Description:
Layout lengths: L4 H6 L7 E7 L2 E6 L4 E8 L2 E7 L23 E5 L3 E6 L2 E6 L5 E5 L5 E13 L6 E8 L5 E4 L13 E4 L16 E2 L2 E6 L2 E7 L5 E5 L6 E6 L4 E7 L3 H12 L14 E2 L7 H14 L5 E4 L20 H10 L3 E6 L3 E2 L5 H8 L14 E3 L2 E4 L6 H9 L2 H7 L3 E4 L19 E2 L6 E2 H24 L6 E3 L2 E2 L7 E3 L7 H15 L6 E2 L1 E2 L8 H11 L6 E2 L15 H16 L1 H14 L4 E3 H4 L13 E3 L3 E3 L9 E6 L3 E4 L5 E3 L2 E6 L7 E4 L3 E4 L13 E7 L3 E9 L13 E10 L2 E9 L8 E7 L5 E6 L2 E3 L10 E6 L4 E6 L1
Parallel strand pairs: 13-29, 19-20, 19-33, 20-21, 21-25, 25-28, 28-30, 30-31, 32-33, 43-47
Antiparallel strand pairs: 1-2, 2-3, 3-4, 4-18, 5-6, 6-7, 7-8, 8-9, 9-10, 10-17, 11-14, 12-16, 14-15, 15-18, 16-17, 22-24, 23-24, 26-27, 34-35, 35-36, 36-41, 37-40, 38-39, 38-41, 42-43, 44-45, 45-46, 46-51, 47-50, 48-49, 48-51
Bound molecules: alpha-D-glucopyranose.
Alpha-D-glucopyranose binds next to loops.
Amino acid sequence: MIVNTELEQKGNLFPSKIINYKKDVDTLHFSTKNGVALQVTVVRDSVIRFRYSTTGKFENDFSYGVTIHASRGYSFLDVTEDETHYNITTSKLICKVEKQSLQVSLFDAIDNKLINEDEIGFHWEECYQHGGDIVKMSKTCQKSESFYGLGDKPVDVNLKGKRFENWATDSYAFGKNTDPIYKAIPFYTAIQDNKAYGIFFDNTFKTSFDFAQERRNVTSFWAQGGEMNYYFIYGPQMEDVVKNYTDLTGKPHALPPLWALGFHQCKWSYYPEANVKEVTNTFRDLKIPCDAIYLDIDYMDGFRCFTWDKNHFPDPKRMVKELEDDGFKTVVIIDPGIKIDLEYDVFKEALDKDYFCKRADGPYMKGKVWPGECYFPDYTKPEVREWWSGLFKELIEDIGVKGVWNDMNEPAVMDVPNKSFPNDVRHDYDGNPCSHRKAHNIYGTQMARATYHGLKKYAYPKRPFVITRSAYSGAQRYTSTWMGDNVATWEHLAIANNQAQRMAMSGFSFAGSDIGGFAEQPQGELFARWIQLGVFHAFCRVHSSGDHGAQEPWVFGEEITDIVRKFVELRYQLLPYLYTSFWKYINDGTPILKSLVLYDQEDIATHYRSDEFVYGEQILVCPIQEPNAKGRRMYIPRGKWYNFWTDDLVEGGKEMWVDADLDSMPMFIKEGAVIPKYPVQQYVGEKKFDEITLDVYYKKGKESSKLYDDAHDGYDYKKGRFSLRTFKVTGKKKELIIQQHKRGEFNADYTKFNMVFHNLPFAITSIQIDNVEIKLENINTAKTQSITIDKEFTELHLFGK
Ligand code: GLC
């Protein structure tokens, strides 16, 4: 060990007083007497970037996390100087930089209230071992402040009092509080005094976050190298913080094909072909809807990526086609480890072209994964990504595979203590050469990015579908994700619930868990309860390690099979609702799942809730997370909600008991909502239907709902071939009015809406559609009243007595 007493004694170092200031359009440059430079860039009125250098010189400004498509521009910017501070004012924020210490404080520009301030602020420690600094930031934590986000952390929703690390790690059978696991998403939102702000620490080195754990009144974050470079994102609504973060790091480049929002079945592994067919046939026989079947590593020849085991899959193209004819899309796994084998063309080509990662002194980065010893492509090099994308031609264009599953991309290495590359491995980092210390956390994202570009190209004119295990901020632009190797326990069901919520508020809504648990085997009851949760996650896939027996929906007996069918059918009925939520997500960054704090931050009772969430905008869900339950207590957010199963109306803002036998789960619809439903299909596109249902939940007052639609695949929607319907419901004592406004050129196959009215407080005496009275016998007056009408109505008016 190197001991350098002089350096060690230096300890934490701090900026001294500002001696220079310059304004350059949207960026203010400050420098201090001891050579520290601070750049403050106004990205938007509510987004300010802070970048510090301890040498006075900044690194090349390059980020994998921030997208070039991020919105920029502000409506107002003013800088003033007084004796003690520089004051930067936008229409949303006032940022004060203290002249003696470089400390920063941020205020709401409307009411001048403090939002967040540096405690000791920026400081650093020199890092003799690697050069550069360990860069640190400490901020004051207010008494009532709460913290959320940070990607896949397997902990309760509120992060206060905890400390975390971001270092993507293969974490087989992780547990509650295991940290770090697969992803590195250095973004959190804090709420204090009904004001929410976010911090995105865009640094790919190992980063740490302490939310008032070490010291009760301090929140801090630091990195093992690189720059102190963070974005301060102001709300004051948490939803706006998340939207702005998602805008900064990118929304998904395209909507997923609708089939990708269906139900997926996976196992390690389905093989040979007969086994795959047996599974898919059973789905159809038992009438459990399913859209995708996965092939795990055993489809390959000796785990060589882009090859097939011809004994088990003699004619993949034929098989994939037959599966497709039966409504199943085939998704295959592709890992980063390329088997060292001079007879293997992928290996040979990468070797010849010098595409593999190397150690500091030149040897290849050699590590064991499934195929045995492997080399690993350096996906941080544009040329390597381009080559990798090209490798998908045969799989996608010729064989007809529809989705690719990227795994082990932390990157995972077996039989070594740190489970990954050593730190000295070199990376191109898009022309900013560096060691693995800097590239580790984005390795998986760059692999998924290269995969995505391959699929995009070869699936064209259809949309690509990619899923990744590891991710850094911004990966959501290219891919969906799952939470890795969880366990079939009740505790893991709760973890999966929290992770999916957390990912959604970390800008990554297209996420889900291995339903039923990857390791070990669930009891039927656990499996059923997990399905009930999983159908409300944007990515919905059963997966298991397969070494403990089967985990298909039918292996737990008839009762469980029926429950699974019921909930998977519900997912398929709600597909237009999910698709609309997805459209909102890619359009303006609205998270598909909303933890209660995100849904109603003003109600402080929501700040520590972890189980309940709002799916889309209007469906409240709370999974049962215990065995033998007949229901549970849950918090109903403020407002009025209809019990989905009974139509009973409840007033929120309180905790209550909700019945939920094994074939049910707590689920509520916001009053006034219009919920679109498709008929049940066994797979997306199975049927052409002439009508869809709109469930209208009466409200005295107003509520607005949306329905987005398009061709469910392809890119025509980007050219205006979509339809966006807004339904405005106005309920009065003896009247209900539904006004429809439509935008976009797409015309769906269905021509009618079956309007189903829930809980009308009056008996209908007359109905007008676009001012024309229609005959009352057209109304179905069974328990719920319904009427089928042309989908292009403008105003539907019910009168009653
Ligand atoms: C990893 C993945 C898992 C996969 C297995 C075999 O453990 O997380 O999903 O089934 O590798 O490929």
